Amino acid sequence: MSDRLKEQIRAYRPVNEQEERDKELILRCLETEKDIFTRENHLAHMTASAWIVNEQRTKVLMAYHNIYKSWSWLGGHADGETDLLKVALKEAQEESGIRHVKPVSEKIYSLEVLTVDGHVKKGAYVSSHLHLNVTYLLQAEETDVLHIKEDENSNVAWFPLEEAVAASTEPWFQEHIYCKLNEKLNYWNLK
């Protein structure tokens, strides 16, 4: 268990009720659930996402996710790693091909508990479950060559901020996650 991550989550200041409630649930699960950093916990497990912006913070890098049939942020399962910033950076590179990516800050950018509907992955059924997600704000170079990760996505592209939200076909993510992440850029741009 990562005491450092728990301290970071405890110190995180939620910006809305969704983040307040999700922070409480994530901390409760970190305290009570076994195998929370692996997929062995079939009810809920830790994940990390990246809201990847260009240097000017006018565009977001997104991938077209094969399972959800939607443009979405990049990220993935902790798979035993308790340093979720490391997970977010690794997933960003693996899912998009970008090489010049760095954290805008090592602080948590956002918290979410995400529902995942049952689906088939690599020929096996995966039951519905929760992703206890920590999001980090990353910055990448638009000039990096982009590559898809065929087993997860079928396209990767930069979108202007508003178009990134509109590109998603998942209304809950549009309204509760992606709009929030874009709005937070105003605060982070002041730093």
Automatic annotation (TrEMBL):
<protein>
    <submittedName>
        <fullName>NUDIX hydrolase</fullName>
    </submittedName>
</protein>
<comment type="similarity">
    <text>Belongs to the Nudix hydrolase family.</text>
</comment>
<keyword id="KW-0378">Hydrolase</keyword>
<dbReference type="Pfam" id="PF00293">
    <property type="entry name" value="NUDIX"/>
</dbReference>
<dbReference type="GO" id="GO:0016787">
    <property type="term" value="F:hydrolase activity"/>
</dbReference>
<dbReference type="InterPro" id="IPR000086">
    <property type="entry name" value="NUDIX_hydrolase_dom"/>
</dbReference>
<dbReference type="InterPro" id="IPR015797">
    <property type="entry name" value="NUDIX_hydrolase-like_dom_sf"/>
</dbReference>
<feature type="domain" description="Nudix hydrolase">
    <location>
        <begin position="43"/>
        <end position="181"/>
    </location>
</feature>
